[in-house]
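Hey Z.,

So I finally got round to the NAP thing we talked about over coffee. Here's the setup:
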Amino acid sequence: MSWQGKTVVITGASSGIGSALAKELAGRGARVGVLARRQDYLQKLVNDVRAAGGTIEEEPGDVTDRSGLRDAIDTLETKLGPIDVLIANAGVSFPSGADPLASEDVETMMRVNYLGVVYAFDAVLPGMLKRGAGQLVAISSLAAYKGLPGSAGYCASKAAVNTFCESLRIELGPRGVAVTAVCPGFIRTPMTAAQTNPMPFLMDADEAARRIANALLRRPAVYNFPWLMFRLMRITRWLPDRVIRRRVMPSTGR
Ligand SMILES: NC(=O)c1ccc[n+]([C@@H]2O[C@H](COP(=O)([O-])OP(=O)(O)OC[C@H]3O[C@@H](n4cnc5c(N)ncnc54)[C@H](OP(=O)(O)O)[C@@H]3O)[C@@H](O)[C@H]2O)c1
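And the result:
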């Protein structure tokens, strides 16, 4: 099992994990399509990957625009060939506590983090089902496992992603399409750059990309990492609220 010759499309690849994944997968011989709103960032990524001998195409796109996203993914497919793996990675994170309840930000996070995954999967799934092969991947988060104070909107959007992936996985497995939810802990990217709270087991984006690339070859249902942070999140699930309040607040945990 390898990435050699596979066609992979990544949403939200203009920075952070998506950009690092594009480089990692192109370096392993995949044919990579990248998509995001900031074209200048995508162009720089394309230049870097091509300079290193990789195959990559870019297309501007907003994951909250269902038909625009479908057109962008279709264009990448025309350039690169049938998509073997779709990685829905685009995401945003805003602090969202209870008072004030920033419902506009919550809505934006649901649109980008959750519906962005749904629309990206929808754009490629008919083709994968016709071929009886493919892999749908969502970059979710360990934040999916616990509603943390200060991060209600982000945690809820990632919990929705995990549950959505779980349903699809059960249904699509027998038809040759694997579904994987990737749940990272804290990764050093522009998203966490302004974070002032402690970020245990913080990992560089390149290392995260290397681990994700290795894990996806096994087509797991869920890939949680780093392992110690996953354990910590699991413990957090069973802690009394008052303990979390004391330890985590005011949290903007990703
Ligand atoms: N960093 C962490 O600690 C961490 C931990 C767990 C999970 N994650 C998840 O990992 C994913 C990548 O995050 P990151 O840390 O790499 O953050 P990042 O560097 O801020 O990257 C986010 C990416 O999403 C894209 N994006 C945002 N809104 C978009 C939209 N409407 N349409 C298309 N693309 C959009 C951005 O591109 P444009 O602005 O150019 O469109 C950018 O390429 C996210 O889903 C995030 O929730 C991150």
